[in-house]
Amino acid sequence: MELSANNIKKKKRRKKICLILLSFYIFSVSFLTCTMEPRASSLEELMQAEEDRKALPVESNEIENWPKGPQIGAQSAIVMEANTGIILYSKNIHEQLYPASTTKILTCLIAAETSSLDEMVTFSQNAVSLEHGSSHMGMDAGQALTMEDALYGILVGSANETANAVAEHVGGSIEGFADMMNQKAQELGCTDSHFVNPNGLHHDNHYTSAYDLAVIARAFFQNELLAKMSNTPTRHFEPTDTQPDDFILRTHHRLVTGEYEYDGILGGKTGYTNTARQTLVTCAEQDGMKLICVVMKEESPSQFTDTMDLLNYGFSNFEIVNVSENETKYNIDNAGFFQTENDIFGSSKPILSLNKDSYLILPKTADFEDIQSTISYDAADGDQLAVIDYHYNGIYVGSASIDIASNTSSYDFDTLAEPLPEPEEPEEENIIFVNVKKVLLCVLAGAAILILVFVIKSFIQNYSFAGRRHYRARYNKRTRYKLKRRRDTQPPRYDDYD
Question: Hey, which residues are catalytic here?
């Protein structure tokens, strides 16, 4: 009886276990089913959202005779020539979107301009306090890095706590640094941005645009050290007295790592949050033309493939055109007005010339004669007399400066008796014909004034001499009359006779 009772208990126990396992299985299946359906739905929504973004118009494709750019899945995108700021491709470039970690290019730009690489950046408790899942490099409160290592940590590892520490080091606080970010953005010409933190973690009031990111990237990639850091695939950090760990950081930018091969990559920065989606800033150079590409609100891995398509579009359809080698409208064939071979000072050089380093970015299908130009004297600066802006079908494509010769010599007239140097062959330069009528009028006016002064002076001199001669004649006549009358009326003096 005891054995049977034990068997019954065991069977009941087994049944309970089986029921528990079965219940757990049913619950698990139900849970997975419930969670998988929304994920599938979310994936479908993301795919549909990408298709909708692909259908958005590309503004640059609406320009007459402008090369047609690719339709991409990004909400906003731009291709800008880095040296001139000329926009080659534009899609919603002024729409305010969330930049995520691409914010860090502005953070590093400000840090590089306001600090030295050997400064020590100490991590506060506030700096290392991050939300779960935020990218970091494992720094603890009280530890410290050099500014150089901190910048590598931000640009290679996208370390959020390091961006916080740098912000506190440079700006005194996160809020103080955010003020510096907004001021710097305004100085650079940004119009669509407002920043509240140095790392790009989501905040409703932290936003920018593809245009503003490209403008910031122009300044960023002018700094060779920052460009090098952003083009570094991996960075090895060794233990120091202020940081005890040995570790390696790897960039997430697949064009930098070479996972997506592309010639001429100079660097860039990735960014991602659930709200911002994928954002990417990239710079590349080919055939002397440097392009910056920004894509915002994209899905992975399209941010990389779309970037390559946009860079290919820019390099394939546009070219650099030197202004001084093509401009004829502002030249004069006879340079004698501004330049002469025989001159009391020796061989003269041109007074004005087009800047030889000025160039335009034009579609390869366009001719120089197709572009329109306007000259402005107000925009001139330094040795510049004027600036010529060029447009192609209403789109700005570059400018050229008219420069005043900076190599003119001063002459000492006391040394002109020395032998003059042999005249040199004048260099062929583009001589600018500017307001010649005004110059001639000034010369004629000056000559007229000199002639008038000469006439007046001569008149005055002649008038003075004539009056003096008339006075002398009257004086001599009166004197002779008085002497004669005195001789006739006075008695003769003794000594008047022999």
Answer: 101, 104, 158
